[in-house]
Design goal:
heterodimer, A: alpha+beta, MetI-like fold, 3 domains, 6-stranded antiparallel beta barrel, 3-stranded antiparallel beta sheet, B: alpha/beta, Rossmann fold, 6-stranded mixed beta sheet, 4-stranded antiparallel beta sheet, 10 strands
Chain lengths: ~525, ~270
Amino acid sequence: MTEPGPSPEAFAERRLKRRHAAERRFKLYGQLAIGIAIGFLAILLFSIASKSVSAFSRHMLVLTIDQPDLSTRSDLAVTDLNLAVRDELVEAFPEIANDRTARIDLFGLTTRLAVLPLTKSAAEDPDLFQAPIEARFAVSDDLDLYLKNEFRTHRTVEVGRAGRLSDTRSGTFRVTDAGPDGFETFQRFVDDQSEPRTDILISLEGAWFELGAISGAALELEHLAGTLPPLGELGGAQIDAVVLPSVGENRKVSNRQIAYTMLLKQRGMIEKRFNQTLFTNSDSTYPELAGTAAALIGSLFTMLITALFAIPVGIFAAVYLEEFAKKSIITNIIEVNINNLAAVPSIIFGLLGAAVFLNTLGLPRSVPLVGGLVLGLLVLPTIIIASRAALQSVPPSVRDAALGLGASHSQAVFHHVLPLAAPGILTGAIIAMARALGETAPLLLIGMVAFISEVPRAPNDEATVLPVLIYKWFSGAERAWEPMTAAVIIILLTILVAMNLVAVLLRRRFERRL
Amino acid sequence: MADTSTSSSGFSPAGFGIGGAKIECRGINVRYHDKVAIEDISIKIQDKSVTALIGPSGCGKSTFLRCLNRMNDTIEGAVVDGEIIMDGENINSPDLDPVTLRSKVGMVFQKPNPFPKSVYDNIAYGPRIHGLAGSKAELDQIVEVSLQKAGLWDEVKDRLSAIGTSLSGGQQQRLCIARAIAISPEIILMDEPCSALDPIATARIEELIDDLRLRYCIIIVTHSMQQAARVSQRTAFFNMGELVEFGDTEMIFTNPAQQRTQDYITGRFG
């Protein structure tokens, strides 16, 4: 300190440099923090969105139902229509009519309840089956996933020309090579497969076989599906092979079902379409039939109750506290407690709801009415705090101007202060609603986690909500629940983003008017 | 000292046409919680004239002004003692409804504070809440006359639906004056109406005040000694919460009775 320092100018310059460096450093930290946040958000959204994509489309079996033999009892309609569907499927593959295991595989392409939408339309329109109608049935969730994922990795290779087809024992055949090669090229190809065991399907004259072995210049084949070509000389018909990406035992879809699927696709009887049932159906134990309708409507009713309860109560409480209440110990205690309530874990509100609304007041379980009231209590402090902040931000000069003109206190508040605070209040309310929409824990405690297969018609019908549906589907055992869960998350996020967007736009619009 | 106001009441009426006493204050004290803001103010304010209140910041002149339309009621912890007799009635009595009082006493604030509504609605708001207009035509008439009195009509007659806050600062302040006039008050209080305006806008407002004094009792708080000298007929000098001197403006500025007044107007303190 005592040594003669540098000149004041140099010292000032050094200091300035240090200050600039500090500023640059701080900016870098800020950019880094934002970068990390955006990165995580992007990863999260990308992973969910990419998982959900497959749930928005679905493979459907297209069948012509020709005057099914329906019983008059509606509860039997599912069984009867199922028989009709099975008849149609067997008609498509007459060659396996007597093979019981092959039929079980065939019927496994779809599920029993896939006819449910059709039974509903039949109940609404008794003349539905007067003429043959083309109807679509969801394929089983496993087949749907196979078609969406593995099916694309099928590799088709040319094998050669068919010589003579002979049967060795029931369902097993041999075909010789028409050329001089004796399938040696194909043998080498099979030996070269990276995986030692891959299933290979062979197509010959429109029929599908599973490749057993190559021996003695002939293919040993097991018939899977399709009309058998006549035994004997085939005169050099084309033989193709499809290399499957996995082995039959390791997947839910059998080789025979794959063969059916390829034939059905060829005939245009399996098509991929937009998954409407995701929005029109309610919950189901079968992922291919499950939809979000009940949860969407349930969320709508719940939000309606929440908004009707929490927004008016919250705004009036805020107006009273901010504009009319005299400052006293009591208002201070109320203020502190409102702030504390906003920080109470949401599950506590669920307990409160269960204790008060269900046990004391005896309201029904699992209904949006109770869910809405519980969520209303949950977001009430948030709305009060946001509304008070909005009221505080109105310049006091406006209040003075109105009072100076002889407006009464309530006229000044309701004619001038409240309208000016409205955008802020509205923004707070919308953000509070968005929070309520994503809330799960309190609703679990009042039983909104029930299995709901009917779309609720009123706020006192049993219902579930979107976040609870995510929770339920996520714990589903089948693999198909994974994309379905991601799809619900995307639907929920879309609604939340839309709500926040509305909040931002409203604020912008009103701010421009000032 | 407390007698200053009354002792100097022998003002010269030369050319002013000043009316009789409109407001008579007796022993006004104002406290905010425990802090005394003004103490024992007694003053008589004449009708149809401009009375200027001058003094350094924090001397209590605005507080005194706000007593006259009970605006201090809106401040928590403010207590106003004393009698304010306006047309024979004590307006400081708790029985009096400040809403009725404020329909008689208009106020113009330091910062122009038009409502964020149209020019028309700004003016029409007062008449509407007091039920002064029986029909739309009558209301239109009030709006036009008020704007004309405030000298703003020619500038805004084509854009009555424009938002009040979109006008220039000077226009906004004249809009606020027009808004105060619209409820036909007898008294207009102005709390440093020109402090946020440029000199040209200030000159216009001063002209306007000069026109208005023929019809209203105007009390204006100002920090500008020149302004007080230009627009007022009577001037009151406040310091540290007391009324130091009150008299004809000419007297105060040329030959003040108190040394403190002399010091203030010559810029030696404040």
